[in-house]
Specification:
heterodimer, A: 161 residues, mainly alpha, globular, B: alpha+beta, 16 helices
């Protein structure tokens, strides 16, 4: 398996994965380190997960290493205000700035699974493989994370109930 | 697990088919759950749609890096190498029995060799280079305990153990200067001379200062006795011991060697009083052993005493005068110059004359000189163990049957006394702390 081919196929996804965590400035460097590391340990890939999941796992470790090296907080969730009117009916019900604040208030563990599942498009099993936790843990974290978001975004509904 | 807890997974489609059917039925039956599921769906859509579009960059750089060979990881070699070096160094340091002791021995030996070489290189009064090859090592033999012969009427010198490291460092600095003592040294010596008692009959400084006696450890006195007695005597057993209290034993020893070098082999080694060094600061006694012809023993002893009591500036002048006299005598120009002692005190002039006489004599004997060398290095340890250096006897080129006398010079560090204001004592007043 040629690593250059793998990089061409998965670079965009890995780049976005890194950008969501370390920001646009460092995303290219971290993505590059991800593929360089993957090239060194490619012989260890046994096909137990998809190649993209394996690369995301490496990218996740590289992002954490970058956090330790730079000692900066993980990048907050980027929300584009211009997308406010682009959504459908459900999208119009949500205040995006309020949503950003609510996501920032989540714990790291909850925010991590939210970003992985909602933004990176990973399934519960893939998130569990990357985080090395059981699938039930991922499901539970997502349930609690969205419960907290609902309390912030739909307070009236919570009071009625 | 309740349906509400699986609601998010149901919205995401992450439940098994059977559980999906159960939740679907529950939502149809309960409009509150249905509304909750709708809110979760709205949140999920809002999160996904609010993300800005990222334009990936850096793919080309990544591809280039992937094709370039990886640089060698030298630290894989450096890390174990550094660890091995550190371990080896630690083992070496731990296996040394007494690191301080060894360094001290090395320093003293090197200093001894330097001073011996300096004295050998100095032109002697008879024009010959004395002991030019004599820079022996004294670290070859070891004997246990002092070998006292009862013929020495020695009063055991009392050591001064209050000597500070600053003074020691100054002496080392002076010792490293082969050209001679510095101005600072001369000033020190002159001031000490001014403090010295005017009457030679007075007891020495160490005896007049009770606090100095209190600070002396018993082992120091024992080592001092061993120092004076453990001297190899000459064949006829005659021995004389002279104790000098000086400010700088090293410099004094060097001058003694220079002065007596033309007549006999000089072999000496200073001993370091380990017990005193541990208990107080550091103090040591230096011992020189001279083997001189019997007929010249008195002159040699006078020379030794004069060097011990004379101010260094005068010594330097006398040395110059002696050298000039010797050169002139060797050229047949006449005897010792009596009129050159201007500015030098009377004792000093005596010393100069003594040295001049001594210097001329070997030529009169036949020009052979006395090359016998007695190696008497030792090292006084706290337990009374004394290491004596090997005895080197150069072949006598003069008369083999000439009776000889062994002169042991024990040079002690003069006791450090608190600063005393300089009194207008004339320069000619001797220190008076000699113990014949």
């Amino acid at each position: 398996m040629d690593m250059a081919t793998i990089a061409r196929d998965h670079y965009d996804a890995v780049y976005r994965f890194c950008a969501r965590r370390v920001g646009l400035e460092k995303a290219a460097d971290v993505a590059q380190e991800t593929f360089l590391t993957a090239q060194k340990v490619l012989h260890k890939f046994r096909g137990e997960s998809s190649l993209s999941t394996w690369l995301f796992g490496i990218a996740h470790n590289e992002c954490r290493r970058e956090f330790r090296r730079g000692k900066f907080e993980p990048a907050s969730l980027e929300i584009d205000p211009s997308c406010a009117s682009a959504g459908g009916r459900e999208d119009a019900l949500v205040d995006r700035e309020l949503l950003r604040q609510a996501i920032l208030r989540l714990s790291d563990e909850h925010r991590e699974v939210v970003v992985m599942h909602e933004l990176d498009g990973l399934t519960y099993e893939e998130v569990a493989q990357i985080l090395n936790v059981p699938v039930g843990t991922v499901k539970s974290r997502l349930h609690h994370a969205f419960s907290n978001l609902r309390k912030v975004m739909f307070p009236a509904a919570e009071e009625v109930r | 697990m309740s349906v509400r807890e699986d609601l998010k997974a149901y919205v995401d489609g992450q439940l098994p088919p059977m559980r999906m059917q159960e939740v679907r039925e529950a939502l149809e039956a309960n409009p509150e759950l249905a509304r909750e599921a709708a809110e979760l769906q709205a949140l999920s859509v809002a999160i996904k749609s609010s993300e800005p579009a990222y334009v990936p960059r850096g793919l080309d750089d990544t591809l280039r890096r992937l094709h370039s060979p990886a640089p060698p990881r030298w630290w894989w070699f450096g890390l174990p190498l550094g660890l091995a070096s550190a371990v080896a160094l630690a083992i070496v340091m731990l296996n040394r029995p007494d690191a301080e002791d060894r360094s001290s021995v090395a320093f003293e030996s090197q200093r001894e060799r330097n001073s011996m070489a300096a004295s050998a290189a100095a032109p002697s009064a008879n024009g010959a280079v004395a002991q030019s090859k004599a820079a022996p090592s004294f670290d070859k033999a070891t004997v246990e305990g002092p070998s006292a012969n009862g013929s020495v009427g020695l009063k055991v010198p009392e050591l001064n153990a209050t000597r500070g490291t600053k003074q020691r460092a100054k002496e080392r600095k002076l010792d490293s200067q082969s050209a001679g003592p510095s101005t600072e040294y001369y000033q020190d010596r002159i001031s000490d001379t001014a403090r010295a008692p005017a009457n030679p009959a007075q007891p020495s400084k160490a005896k007049t200062r009770p606090e100095a006696q209190e600070q002396r450890p018993a082992s120091t006195l024992k080592d001092a006795a061993a120092l004076a007695l453990a001297v190899p005597t000459s064949e006829n057993g005659k021995q004389e011991t002279i104790v000098l209290d000086v400010d700088s034993p090293v410099v004094t020893a060097s001058r003694l060697r220079q002065a007596l070098a033309p007549y006999q082999g000089v072999a000496a080694k200073q001993g370091f009083d380990r017990a005193a060094a541990k208990e107080q600061s550091d103090s040591y006694v230096q011992r020189l052993v001279f083997e001189v012809p019997e007929v010249k023993a008195k002159e040699a002893a006078a020379t030794i005493r004069s060097i011990g009591m004379s101010p260094p500036m005068g010594e330097a002048m006398a040395k110059n005068v002696l050298s000039a006299d010797a050169a002139r005598l060797s050229a047949g120009a006449g005897g010792p110059g009596g009129g050159r002692g201007a500015g030098v005190d009377s004792k000093y002039a005596t010393a100069r004359r003594d040295q001049s006489n001594l210097a001329v004599q070997p030529q009169g004997v036949g020009g052979g000189g006395f090359g016998g060398g007695v190696g008497g290095g030792f090292r006084a340890a706290a337990g009374g163990k004394i290491n004596t250096g090997h005895v080197e006897k150069a072949p006598d080129v003069g008369k083999a049957s000439t009776p000889k006398r062994t002169i042991v010079v024990v040079i002690r560090q003069r006791a450090q006394s608190p600063k005393v204001e300089k009194s207008p004592v004339p320069k000619s007043s001797g220190p008076g702390n000699l113990e014949p």
